[in-house]
Amino acid sequence: MDYSPLRTALADVVAIPVTPYDAQGAVDRTAYRALLRRLLDGGVKAVTPNGNTGEFYALTLEERRLVTELTVEEAAGRAAVLVGVGHDAATAVEAARHARAAGADMVMVHQPVHPYVAQDGWIDYHRTIAEAVPGLGVVPYLRNPLIEGAAIARLGEECPNVIGVKYAVQDATRFAAVARDAGLDRFVWVAGLAELYAPSYWAVGATGFTSGLVNVAPNVSLDMLGALRAGDYPGAMKVWEQIRRFEDLRAERQSANNVTVVKEALAAMGLCRRDVRAPSKPLPEPRRAEVAAIVEGWSV
Prior knowledge:
There is one protein chain. By secondary structure, the protein is α/β, with parallel strands linked by helices. The protein has one domain: Alpha-Beta Barrel (TIM Barrel), CATH 3.20.20.70. It is built from 12 helices and 8 strands.
């Protein structure tokens, strides 16, 4: 199978849409479709329903399936759909097969949350999922700094549909080494820590980055992408400075407000409710005003 179109889609801004809720706490289908259309109209070429910014771990099985189906329907070929799957291997396989049946292009395999992860076990987990959906591209989401490049290389040798890696370890030097040990050209390397880490990761091999901020300001994320592609690091860092406070708010207390800040910004713009599910929590009033002021300054 020719995976080059999917590889191209990953070498871009990979948007992680939020999952909006209605007044009764259910997934707001109308708001979700509108947010997706805004991303697509803004030029986004890859979307990841059921990502962490989409509150993957707070959604029920039925809700995850619903979000997958809505995303495929709304994308309608305008962007590649990369569905987040995870939990135990059997559940992840079932979700990947559902994504394939719904018409998705790829699956992103969330980091295993099991407290005991062996290198060979990590390979086995991802192989089980990849072999179950040979027609889909597969992208492991790697947050564990102990997983070595050799393990990723072995997975790639055994599973040709593993085409990219979303790398989210806060260490650009480690990323550079892992990517080269695994195969810099074998995989598409996606900077999984979004815009603040994108310039440093790009400098050592990443060709795409994930984004939650893109929900709020697609033009800002795409401005950074354009600068990085052009090798214009001063231009990329100008965007970096523009978004720094917003992303710092998301990252506080081990990213406790990662989703909350994005939804607060969208609420300030009248695009969806600010509601998040536990263990996340809405922002206190002073922070709400700060987020609204930041977004106003972006002219989105």
